[in-house]
């Protein structure tokens, strides 16, 4: 990266990273390249494999543009794309383990990641130990000579524990283990994993990078030392995202900064309003001073996104259904990071092993979209009225 690019501010990088209009007849956006076969001009060229692109699965100019932009934004050596966030996660993990190895995974991890560890990895002879996400440097006590990696997610995407990533990374590296971090919540704008000791970063680009709930995509960004094993596994597994999804991610990337500021502003305002509601037992948001991990968030992060949680006071199934079923602006659906507000009940008590989830009542995960904050408050207020009426 040139010195000029290195010192550009995030907003400028979002607008310009990965773009080369001169290469595409002056068009601002890299076109969508659809295709499998790439022709070679001569027999000798084919034997030498001397072209930048050789086969559609191995990359196109559209893929290269997004990979280049994301590597620059994240501060990594190289980026690879995958068809979903989960395939990015599983590919990154598989790149560093073999039968007989041991890994450490945050107890607050994205549930499909846990399912992969408990099924596929177990079948392959890789053992998983789940750790308390607030363990910090104490994770060293869980390391063994077989421990090959630590998989972290900070904050957790349901219960929002903030991890001491520098301390965890120092302990992992001291034992010769890699550190992989799911950075989807913070995006490359609000947390810089490589500055805090992480070796490989994964994202569900489906969320904030795409930003419009219309594409599935995963991202793996590596340090220089970690690039070769991940690239080899990625190639062997034959991963390639759809060209339209890549293009939609490139388009979404250009507005990531302005969208995140709005998500952050709305989520914080909504969290404050909810904290005053009698129906709410507590708000779980890392950027709030009452969050147990707030000091770590304040030390390591430069912002917060639109995803947080609340715990209600005790309520019946019927009352909760009355509240949620009548919402007009908050949709009930999986994923998050799009322009639309979402709300989803969750209960992780059945799939935690290193920690215990205790809640006063039903827990709800909220994604604050781009709607007007007063309209969102009114929608929830009407929901609380239904909750009270059905209790």
From TrEMBL:
<dbReference type="GO" id="GO:0047804">
    <property type="term" value="F:cysteine-S-conjugate beta-lyase activity"/>
</dbReference>
<protein>
    <submittedName>
        <fullName>Cystathionine beta-lyase</fullName>
    </submittedName>
</protein>
<keyword id="KW-0456">Lyase</keyword>
<dbReference type="GO" id="GO:0019450">
    <property type="term" value="P:L-cysteine catabolic process to pyruvate"/>
</dbReference>
<feature type="region of interest" description="Disordered">
    <location>
        <begin position="1"/>
        <end position="22"/>
    </location>
</feature>
<feature type="modified residue" description="N6-(pyridoxal phosphate)lysine">
    <location>
        <position position="207"/>
    </location>
</feature>
<dbReference type="GO" id="GO:0019346">
    <property type="term" value="P:transsulfuration"/>
</dbReference>
<dbReference type="InterPro" id="IPR006233">
    <property type="entry name" value="Cys_b_lyase_bac"/>
</dbReference>
<dbReference type="InterPro" id="IPR015424">
    <property type="entry name" value="PyrdxlP-dep_Trfase"/>
</dbReference>
<comment type="similarity">
    <text>Belongs to the trans-sulfuration enzymes family.</text>
</comment>
<dbReference type="InterPro" id="IPR015422">
    <property type="entry name" value="PyrdxlP-dep_Trfase_small"/>
</dbReference>
<dbReference type="InterPro" id="IPR000277">
    <property type="entry name" value="Cys/Met-Metab_PyrdxlP-dep_enz"/>
</dbReference>
<dbReference type="Pfam" id="PF01053">
    <property type="entry name" value="Cys_Met_Meta_PP"/>
</dbReference>
<dbReference type="InterPro" id="IPR015421">
    <property type="entry name" value="PyrdxlP-dep_Trfase_major"/>
</dbReference>
<keyword id="KW-0663">Pyridoxal phosphate</keyword>
<feature type="compositionally biased region" description="Basic residues">
    <location>
        <begin position="1"/>
        <end position="11"/>
    </location>
</feature>
<dbReference type="GO" id="GO:0030170">
    <property type="term" value="F:pyridoxal phosphate binding"/>
</dbReference>
